Amino acid sequence: MTQIQKFLMMYRNTPHSTTLQAPAKLLLGRNIRTQFDALIPSSVDVVNGRQTAQIKHHGKRQHELKIGDTVVVRDYRNNDQKRSKGTVTKSLSKNVIEVDTEEGIWKRHLDQT
Q1: Residue 22 and residue 14: Cα distance in Å, rounded?
Q2: Which residues on neighbouring strands pair with residue 33, listed in sequence order?
Q3: For residue 53, what are the CA distances in angstroms to 49, 74, 88, 98?
Q4: Which H/E stretch holds residue 86?
Q5: Whole-model pTM above 0.90?
Q6: Longest C-alpha distance within the chain, in Å?
Q7: Cα–chain-centroid distance for residue 72?
Q8: HEC profile for 18-63?
Q9: Minimal CA–CA distance to 69: which of 106, 37, 97?
Q10: Which end of the chain is more exposed for a tag (fewer CB within 10 A), N or C?
């Protein structure tokens, strides 16, 4: 009896050569679950795993800049030079510093250094 049930399960889940659809999909509107479906991780598990990894690695890339460090900062003015050298003069917050450049004092986020 079990062999017949396994055969029918495989038959109903195999796409037909004419319709290119499995009989179970035509009848139920969806594919029926098999043992192979248990091997595929659920999307909830994948999302939770990636979110946990993001939380775990958040903040690991903190920059350690001290007053007096020489940095290269992004120049947003309309000129050919994209970056300018400067010296850190003040830490305004966790991620914002004040940089003294040849063109003046600029406030920049750490991602812009």
Answers
A1: 5
A2: none
A3: 6, 30, 32, 32
A4: strand 83-91
A5: no
A6: 86
A7: 28
A8: CCCCCHHHHHHCCCCCCCHHHHCCCHHHHHHHHHHHHHHHCCCCCC
A9: 97
A10: N
Cβ-contact 88, 71 below 8 angstroms:
yes
Please count the residues of the chain.
113
The partner residues of 104 in beta bridges, in order of sequence, read 101
Identify residue 1 by its one-letter amino acid code.
M
The tens-digit pLDDT sequence of the chain (113 residues) is: 799 998 998 899 999 999 999 999 999 998 888 888 888 888 898 999 999 988 887 766 556 788 898 999 888 876 677 888 999 998 888 888 999 998 889 998 887 77
Residue 2 structure tokens: 């079990």
